[in-house]
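Appendix B, example 12.
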Amino acid sequence: MMESIKKALLTGIGLAAMSKEKIEEWAKNFAQEAKMAEGEGKKFVDEILKQADEAKRNVEDQVTKFTKNALEKMGLTTKNEVDELKRRLEELERKMKEGGRQ
């Protein structure tokens, strides 16, 4: 039963949106209300925090992918692409200056 409750609570991005402190507070309260032993309660809190971090990383990855796809569809360049073009331009300018000195 506990596993079912934990899985239900971790569904969606709600957990990913919570702060670490709020998650820890909620998990501790839940462990107390479920009358878990101290060791079991700590393990539960640690597991919830670990899964929350994973959920946050997954949300960040999805947002990054969505943003990249949107930029590509709009034909916009990324900062990395602009930085690479700047680097190449500086290199060409340097080569032109060196060629003019000889």
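The CA atoms of residues 11 and 76 lie 34 Å apart. Helices lie at 2-10, 14-17, 20-33, 38-74, 79-101.
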